[in-house]
Amino acid sequence: QVQLVESGGGLVQPGGSLTLSCAASGRRSSINAMGWYRQAPGKQRELVATITSGGGTSYADSVKGRFTISRDNAKNTVYLRMNSLKPEDTAVYYCNAATIPFSIYWGQGTQVTVSS
Fold it and tell me: CA-to-CA distance for 31 and 17, rounded, in angstroms?
C-alpha cells in the first residue's frame, strides 16, 4: 500500500504562482511513475503532468511552459510548480502514483482556485 498526501493548494490571483507537494508513504520503494491530475467542477479528471523514476517528464498541452513537475526520490515527494496561473486552472489537484507490480494510488486532492 502507498499513501499520498497533497499540500500547497489555495487561492491565488491570475498570473500568480503556487507549488503543490505530494508526500508518499508506505511501500515507497515500489513507486515508479508519479503524476498530477486535476478535476474542475462538471469536468472529467485530466492529466496535468507526470514524472518517471528516472526523471522523464510529460505535460498536458494546456500547462506546457507554465507548470513544472519535479521529484525528490530521497524524500519520496513530488512537486508541481505552477506559474502564470489562469482562472481555467481552477480545479482539485490530485497526486497519483503507479507502482511495480502495477497498482494505482491517489491522494485526497487539494483545491486550487485562481481568481481575482
Answer: 28
Q: Which three cell numbers stand for residue 57?
A: 517528464
Grid cell for residue 56: 522523464
Contacts by 75-79, CB closer than 8 A, 24 or more apart? 75/23, 76/23, 76/24, 76/25, 76/28, 76/31, 77/21, 77/22, 77/23, 77/24, 78/21, 78/22, 78/24, 78/34, 78/35, 78/36, 78/51, 79/19, 79/20, 79/21, 79/22
Kindly report whether the peptide bond that precedes residue 14 is cis, defined as omega within 30 degrees of 0. Answer: no
pLDDT tens digits for range 69-93: 999 988 889 999 999 999 999 999 9
- pLDDT bin (cut points 50, 70, 90) of residue 28 is low
Residue 81 has which C-alpha cell? 510548480
Instruction: Read off the pLDDT of residues 39-63 as tens digits, 9 standing for 90 and up.
Output: 999 999 999 999 998 899 999 999 9
